[in-house]
Amino acid sequence: MMSGGFNRGFAPFAAALGIVTLFSAGCVYPDLKNFSREERTLYLYNFANSTFDADAQTELNETLREEIHSKEDFLLVPEPEEARLGLYGEVTLYRKEGRLYDNLRNPTRYELIIGVRIRLREKPSGRVLLSTEESATVHYSPREGFPESEVQARHRLLRELARNIHRSMVGAYRGTYGQVE
């Protein structure tokens, strides 16, 4: 019977689907903890910056360091000699563009775009495990809807980019060294 727009027979199915989705989400994004700790040591080099935004690479390094540390797939080391892997890159694009304008042609909604070129290299052999470009984009408005400052939007942008980079690193590592049971 339909009561208030909700079918009571559907509730167990929806709950089961939710549980299956939660468990399968863990399988989609596997971690690297079953690989030895020594093989997963990483030195994060400072990123270069070829954009006109002075702090993009500094903030990205800090955000990426937090992302890697929180996931614990790679173990960050303080010295390059201690690392088995090295990650370095360059911020190649940082742009703020107006996307929605008022009647006086003033932007009311903006888009932040960032792009980086990264390389993950195995230190002893010098073999490149990953060489790719990653990007992220976010929209924000300081005046309409849920107001958000550019600083807050930039933080979201760098978080998204750090997640994308980390995901690529894990994929490249798994692709190179395979599954460990």
SSE order and pairing:
Elements: E1 2-3, E2 6-7, H1 10-28, E3 41-44, E4 48-49, H2 56-71, E5 75-76, E6 85-101, E7 107-122, E8 128-140, H3 150-177
Parallel strand pairs: 3-5, 3-6, 4-6
Antiparallel strand pairs: 1-2, 6-7, 7-8
Helix pairs in contact: 2-3
Report on the structure:
- This protein is of the alpha/beta class and 181 residues long.
- It folds into 2 domains: 1-30; 36-177, 2-Layer Sandwich (Double Stranded RNA Binding Domain).
- It contains 3 helices and 8 strands; from the N terminus they run E-E-H-E-E-H-E-E-E-E-H.
- Strands 3, 4, 5, 6, 7 and 8 form a 6-stranded mixed sheet that branches. A two-stranded antiparallel sheet has the order 1-2.
- Helix 2 (56-71) crosses helix 3.
- The chain is flat, with a radius of gyration of 21 Å.
- The model is unreliable at 24-28 (pLDDT under 50).
Give the beta-strand count.
8
Name the overall outline.
Answer: flat
Q: State the end-to-end distance.
A: 49 Å
Report the CATH superfamily of the largest domain.
Answer: Lipoprotein like domain
Largest sheet: 6 strands, mixed
Q: Helix count, per DSSP?
A: 3
Low-confidence stretches: 24-28
Strand content: 25-35%
